[in-house]
Amino acid sequence: MAKESKAEASNTGKMFATGLGILMATLGSAVGLGNIWKFPTLTGTNGGAAFIFIYIACALVIGLPVMAAEQMLGRSSRGDAVTAFRRLAPGKLWWLIGAGGVLAAFMIMAFYTEVAGWVLAYVFKSMGQGLMTTDPAVTSAAFGALITDPVRSLGFQWIDLLITGAIILMGVTKGIEAATKRLLPLLFVLLLLVSVRSLTLAGAAEGLAFLFTPDFSAVTVNTVLEAMGLAFFKLSIGMGCMITYGAYYRNDQNIPATASKVVLSDLAISLLAGIAIFPAVFAFGFEPAAGPSLLFITIPAVFSSMPLGNVFMVIFFALTFIASIGAQISLLEVITAFLENTFKLNRKQGTAITLVSLALVGSLAALSNSVLAEVTLFGLTFFDLFDFASSNILLPVGGFFITLFAGWFWGKSKYFAQISNEGSLKNEKAGKFLFTITRFVSPVLVLIVLLRGLKII
Ligand code: PHE
Q: 6-453 — its CATH code?
């Protein structure tokens, strides 16, 4: 009892104020570069609709139960990724899941801040005329010049870190909740605007066909691993981010409903990003499989080909940057909350240490295309290694253990008490369904995809 009241007290003032705020903050974490940069890139390189189809299956069968489980673990323990497991399983090693999550947050932030930095640079670049060319060779040279310049790479990354750090410093309610509540609707409207523009171009139909007519012949085990990794990444799960946010949830928040809304809205926004990008890519005869540079090389050329392209390009990069903010603050919060609770720091100290350490680790990714281009581990630059290891290994492994914890260690009665808000929600059927999937289906699927994808079996 004493322990519990202390746990509550240490979190006083650290709660999302309203149900809508909870939804927006959580959705703000899910929606980000994952939707606007990774989803189109991977869809493009993996052949379109078939990949989307597998992604949707992963999001529903693995993503939803893991997200709900994390939020429940966070809310019932009122702890960060590590503290939650320490409180729910004292004296046991389960806290290592949370430690892996904090490590994943570092790895993701290291490359994420770099891409967000490029996006920020492009907001300014697209205001001038430099990117207004339909020749991908020119846009490619412009992108190459940016990423191989160590000073600009680091500079934009650090500006990005300072912006996100400032929001984190303002706290859970006044920082995270207030920022995401304002940014998300703006993001949605801007994305809708660009989608309508893209859809009304002559030749848009081919892009839609690419997005919605599946061809499963090109699907390999690797495609499935990529799709699952993307689901973890896009939904911010498998690394304690949803545990950290769950700790700020109100006791009367309907968790299965919230998680479902987040998964579906995140999917809708990804598809909208696809609709904003691919019809235009096809209409102007560009290559959908351009890879990570799709956003920075193909997209400017596409915008340059359309009326009012300059304006739409500024809007597009601004909305992408806005989307990245909500996701980044949730990643920062995982680290900051852990530091605050574990080392008894105040928010200022926690944020400062997080920012400084991220600037250091992040520079490894930021310099991957210049000074450190020749330094590789397992054949990957730091940038690619952080990206691959986090999405395709750390998050699925984390998700696997989270489902084991929630489905087996924590067990039925505690799971049911949380999912139904101690019985006040009459959602027994939904609860049973989610519990069964959490217990039997998700862990098995994650394990098979992971082991096959990494060629272990
Ligand atoms: N979901 C975020 C995105 O799509 C990235 C993210 C991953 C955020 C993990 C938090 C935790 O951009």
A: 1.10.4160
pLDDT for 5: 41
Q: For the chain, which residues make up each domain, given as ranges?
A: 6-453
| Binding site membership of 33 for ligand 1 (Cβ less than 6 Å) | yes
Q: What is this structure's pTM? A: 0.93
The pLDDT score that the predictor gives to residue 388 is 92
Probe target for ligand 1 pocket from 26, 27, 29, 269, with the most ligand atoms within 8 Å of CB:
29
Q: DSSP assignment, residue 440? A: I
Does the beta carbon of 389 lie inside 6 Å of ligand 1? no
What's residue 305's pLDDT? 83
pLDDT of residue 294: 87
Q: Is 234 in the pocket of ligand 1 (CB under 6 A)?
A: yes
Separation of CA 238 and ligand 1 centre (Å): 11
Pick the atom of ligand 1 nearest to 34's CA: 4
pLDDT of the residue at 1: 37
Q: How far, in Å, is the centroid of ligand 1 from the Cα of 331?
A: 7
Give the HSE-up count for residue 273: Cα atoms under 13 Å, Cβ half-sphere: 29
Which residues of the chain register pLDDT less than 50? 1-12
**Two structure tokens written together for 343:** 């080392």
Which residues face 432 on adjacent strands? none
The answer to whether the CB of 267 is under 6 A from ligand 1 is no
Q: Is 35 in the pocket of ligand 1 (CB under 6 A)?
A: yes
In sequence order, the 6+-apart residues with CB closer than 8 A to the CB of 271 are: 52, 211
Residue type, 101: G
Question: Which residue in 286, 280, 225 sits closest to 447, CA to CA?
Answer: 225
Structure tokens at 446: 């994650």
Please identify, by atom number, the ligand 1 atom nearest to the C-alpha of residue 323: 12
| Separation between Cα atoms, residue 291 and residue 235, nearest integer Å | 21
Helix, strand or coil, per DSSP, at residue 91: coil
Among the atoms of ligand 1, which is closest to the Cα of residue 238? Answer: 9
112, 114, 233: residue to mutate for ligand 1 pocket, most atoms within 8 A of CB: 233
What pLDDT does residue 48 have? 94
* Contacting residues for 119 by C-beta, under 8 A, at least 6 apart: 33, 295, 317, 320, 321, 324
Contact between 248 and 15 under an 8 Å Cβ cutoff? The reply is yes
Cα–Cα distances in Å, from 419 out to 17, 71, 108, 171, 366?
Answer: 20, 10, 29, 27, 42
